[in-house]
Design a protein that fits this description.
With 428 residues, the protein is α/β, with parallel strands linked by helices. Helix content is 19%, strand content 22%. It is an enzyme of class 3 (hydrolase).
């Protein structure tokens, strides 16, 4: 099945941790610190592949994680950077934050490659922390965590002209007659379940791209059937050809059909509602009227041409009237803004990775117990017996807001703070 929507999980790589080591060589008994830096984590990159036209692959693989950076090594060795992960998508794919629905990026126009999540920065090795008073630091900086996000991918067809109308009015037949597209055609409702693209070639460099937008039904703007899935493809088009069954072979009234579909377009969005359109009154070779009755073509013209909507009687099967319709549409397109419709970025990243959680509790002896994965990790890297290491850890507690949280919990001078086997006396 054609897929034009998918939800996936993406995560950039974690930065490698800095290394703690000391130079150990013959005849150098007190070598200095030589722990290297960790490598940068891999980025998550989206890239347009013009050979793709669906999002089907994302139905099978929903998790995409870039490689972590390697830990730094001895002798000032820098850890290797994690490999970037390149995710290939069709042109016209819009990437949105799954939680807020805001646009992260639109893979259209000149935007063929976009870094969506950046890998974590590698941590510095202990060689960076040597000073005149602290010549043997036993701590290093951990790598920054990667960023992670659930995103929605939406493929929005890029075409100059969209064909709209009720199911079974002849859109696929028209597209196959006037373009190089080969849509499946059958006399069933909802035969077309995805947009078909075709190029209308009028010669001498004239022409345009036309998309057969799948059949709409009343209630589509409220999501009835596959309404939203169909309507989203219209957003990028510059003009609409509204195809209607003028002969009423399905037992419907052609004027009421046009009014019903336009009501759905209006309910969906203002941008779609305001698209210029023409009416192609199809199946004129099947029209039968009694003598004296108003023809459906005249009814359509009398109803819509006063509103500035031209009506062209055609037969998609025989080709009657198609030349006039296509040349009119081509000339109208020349008067419209040729700038492609690109969805602007709405989502601001900031730091997508929240601080790792921690909690503050009270022990039976009154000590304030602080626990959390990042605190435990920092204690493992830090030499609290050294003045430099202690100040390093104290700065970490202050920058993470942990000291402020302790104050909110009522800590006073002289109280004990306990963290994974270490007891500290609290002083301002």
């Amino acid at each position: 099945m054609f897929a034009d929507r998918a939800k996936i999980f993406i995560k950039s790589g974690k930065g490698g941790d800095g290394h703690v080591s000391f130079r150990r060589e013959l005849f150098v008994p007190d070598g200095g610190p030589d722990g290297g830096d960790g490598g940068k984590g891999g980025d998550i990159i989206f890239q347009v592949d013009k050979g793709l036209n669906t999002l089907t692959d994302f139905r099978h693989v929903r998790k995409y994680v870039a490689k972590d950076g390697e830990q730094g090594g001895k002798r000032r060795c820098h850890g290797a950077n994690g490999a970037d992960l390149v995710i290939k998508v069709p042109e016209g794919t819009v990437i949105k934050d799954a939680e807020t629905g805001k646009v992260i990026t639109d893979m259209s126009g000149d935007n063929m490659r976009e870094v969506v999540l950046k890998g974590g920065r590698g941590g510095q090795g202990n060689m960076h922390y040597a000073t005149a008073t602290m010549q043997a630091p036993k701590y290093a900086q951990p790598g920054k965590p990667g960023q992670e996000l659930y995103v929605n991918l939406e493929l929005k067809v890029i075409a100059d002209v969209g064909l709209v109308g009720f199911p079974n009015v002849g859109k696929s037949t028209l597209l196959s007659h006037v373009t190089n597209a080969n849509p499946k055609i059958a006399n069933y409702h909802f035969t077309t379940i995805h947009p078909n693209l075709g190029v209308v070639d009028l010669g001498e460099g004239q022409g345009f791209v036309m998309a057969d937008i799948p059949g709409l039904i009343e209630g589509a703007a409220e999501g009835v059937g596959l309404g939203h899935d169909f309507l989203r493809h219209i957003e990028r088009t510059k003009m609409l050809i509204h195809l209607v069954d003028a002969a009423g072979t399905e037992g419907r009234d052609p004027v009421e059909d046009v009014l019903a579909i336009n009501k759905e377009l209006e309910a969906y969005s203002d941008s779609v509602k305001n698209l210029p359109q023409v009416i192609a009154a199809n199946k004129i070779d099947a029209i039968y009227t009694e003598e004296g009755d108003e023809s459906p073509i005249e009814r359509l013209k009398n109803t819509f041409e006063p509103q500035g909507i031209r009506v062209f009687p055609i037969s998609a099967v025989s080709g009657q009237g198609l030349k006039e319709l296509l040349y009119y549409v081509n000339n109208q397109l020349k008067t419209l803004d040729q700038t492609p419709v690109i969805f602007e970025r709405e989502f601001e990243f900031g730091d997508l990775t929240p601080d790792l959680p921690y909690e503050i509790t009270r022990a039976d002896d009154g000590a304030f117990v602080v626990e959390g994965p990042l605190i435990e990790k920092m204690l493992g890297y830090t030499n609290l017996e050294s003045e430099k290491g202690f100040l390093f850890f104290q700065r970490f507690l202050r920058e993470r807001g942990i000291l402020d949280r302790l104050k909110e919990n009522g800590i006073e001078e002289g109280n004990t703070v306990r963290m994974y086997g270490f007891d500290f006396d609290y002083y301002e």
